[in-house]
Amino acid sequence: MKRLATAAPWLAASLGVAITLWVFYPGYMSWDSAFQWWQMRHALYDPAHPPVMAGLWSLTDRVLPGPGGYFAYQTLLYWCALAALMSALRLPPILRCLCVLLLGFWPPIWGLSAQLWKDVAMMSWFAVSVALLCRDLATPSRALRLLALLTLALACAYRYNAIVAALPLALWLGWRGMSLRYGAPASRLLSAMIGGVFLAAVALLATVPARVLHVASVPIWPTIAQWDIAAVSIAENHLLYPPHWSAPDLSVPELRAAFDPAVNTTIFATGKVYVNLYTPMTDADFSALRDTWISLPLQHREAYLRHRWRVTQLLLGWDRAAHPDGLVFSAGEVAFKDNPPVLRNASGANARVQEQLQSLIATPLFAGWMYLLLALAVFVGASFDRQRPGAGLAMAVAASALLLVLPLTIFAPSTDFRYLSWLLLAAPVSLLIWFTAGTRAAKSRPR
User: Fold this and answer.
1) What is the C-alpha to C-alpha distance for residues 79 and 85, in angstroms, rounded to an integer?
2) Is the peptide bond before 253 cis (omega within 30 degrees of 0)?
3) Looking at the domain assignment, is residue 381 inside a domain?
4) 128 and 204 share a domain?
């Protein structure tokens, strides 16, 4: 019976891997995915994309060339993360299987897992880290906590803004280590300080792939600032770009025609709004753009808040009808430069499944605000139910999802649904942890 309980979630995950590869192999490639593949093929890494995905892709390419190899790795990681999570919870074997399959095939998350996007691996590595923390909650182990730190770093290596999502989990690690060593109540200040050290270590480790591959650090924030400036310029009917960030002959009508409230890339397609990644900029240029950006909520409050509120509506699904389906899934194979052509999955199963996924985009299943409310409810509810063994970790997981998504209302460069990937998984997982995580070895000697 014990062997069955151990194997059950992994058997369910094996089924999930098989079905996912059958339906979606070799995965879908958007423009970003195709660009990552091109970077891997030429060992030329663009600073706008953390290089860990292209770096790992070069390893899978040696075993199974092309996008199929990376998709197989991503699929294994996704389902193994779910199996590891359910294995660490106090559930009967049948419920572990059902939870793996329910979460794994949950339409928004499963649909995202078919895309070759760094967000999927980020979400999966966060899930692995949480699984290790759940296991440590049941059987305390320094090795598990160290592995949790390393997997947090892997998650953050895929998206540098994910460091804010790592903060609550790093603080949990600090508190967990202190409470095991000195007993409860541990010093909150010292626990927070140790958590801060852990977070710094995660941030440092997350930059290792870029340093190993010699990828220069280039600021990405200007592209967000330029989008915000464009929105306010259109609202005020006056161009607010500082010198060197746009062409002298750019006009407001031209900018208005190119502007899309759902995504920032359209303004750069004009060729008249310059991208610092490919255009040399001085420190004075960056300072001027930063000052202009900061001035928007101060000097143009109404226009700026209206723009950011619209971004929030589209991102969190308050206006799903107006949100382009192409910013949810990219169900195809985008060609890029000299990338070899990819034979897409043309099976009947793929067509039927993708049609069903597309038909669900306009339903509440894809409403990000519902998952946001669930994570918030878990965080608040668990804070009043601290007697449950899993309450503290549930709060950390819910806070992790909230901290990743909430800053996007101000800093999102577009309204891509994939930005919500960790929220979609973390919200229901935090609920499960609250009620089912616990110490099977509460009296064992902490290690």
Assistant:
1) 10
2) no
3) no
4) yes
